[in-house]
Amino acid sequence: MNMHSAHAAFGVDSLKTILGIPVLAIRWDDAIALLTRLIAERRFTKISFLNAHNANIASVDPVFAEALDDFLILPDGVGVDMAAKLLYGAPFPDNLNGTDFVPAFLQASTRPLTVGLLGATRVNAEAASTRLAALAVQHRFVVIHDGYFPPADEPAIIDRIARLHPDVLLVAMGVPRQELWIARHIDARHCTLPIAVGALLDFLSGTVPRAPLWMRRLRLEWLFRLWIEPGRLWRRYVVGNPVFLLRVVRQKLFGKPEPAEATPGAGH
Asked: Name one Pfam family in it (predicted).
């Protein structure tokens, strides 16, 4: 299933297009039920999340934007909520950020699954696997490889994924590398649900702290991340967020995203 088949399955009101990218407008529980059904039916589906940062990257990287066209895209964060409210008069029904949604989906899935982990450092991936195994004891978690491998190692890694054939493959390589890697190398022969999860394994490992719950409830987790890693993230948030909102305003006024130009923080 991609966004086009999702459109047919859920109806015209189920998609909100943000800067040219169709995003599924769906409640939290319905999204969990959808992913559970896709696995039960063995319907190969690539899954990613749209936030202000990767929407900016897609605006200037046509290869990334084209790859996303074949993913089922879920809404992540306050930026795309603001965009949806501006463009469609209402925010997304729920914030399905992968850091919270993916573990919740795995906890809610009662049928035992095999879940492959690919990405982050080996230490963080192993720690994330241990954490997930404690959160969702019904599943089998397998660390396939860290995210730091040369192209020469790819065939062996892809072969290992195919032999394992996990129900879920969590790919944590950062945007846009993780989505492009899935698009180029992973199909129904390898797994059922490849999910691009960004920094999820780093968060689960405890290496990168999450914002306090009150900040998350106020939709200020981005501010906490900026405070923790200002050198890496200031361009993404301080420059990138206003650029994203300007692009959304342009879409509102002119019915199309602005032409491609250099985006601050792209690729980090």
From this structure: Glyco_tran_WecG
- CA angle 66/68/69 to nearest 5° reads 65
Beta bridge pairs of residue 172: 119
Residue with tokens 């200002």: 230
- In the chain, count of helices (H) and strands (E)? 14, 8
Of the candidates 197, 58, 192, the one whose C-alpha atom is nearest the C-alpha of residue 125 is 197
| 3 state SS of 261 | coil
* Cα 3 from Cα 46, distance rounded (Å): 10
Residues 6+ apart with CB under 8 A from 136: 103, 106, 107, 109
State the Rg of the chain over Cα: 18
Given this model, what pLDDT does residue 10 score? 55
The answer to whether the beta carbons of residues 180 and 63 sit under 8 Å apart is: yes
pLDDT value of position 86: 97
- Do the Cβ atoms of 129 and 205 come closer than 8 Å? no
Whole-number Å distance between alpha carbons of 151 and 158: 11
Token match 């990334």: residue? Answer: 64
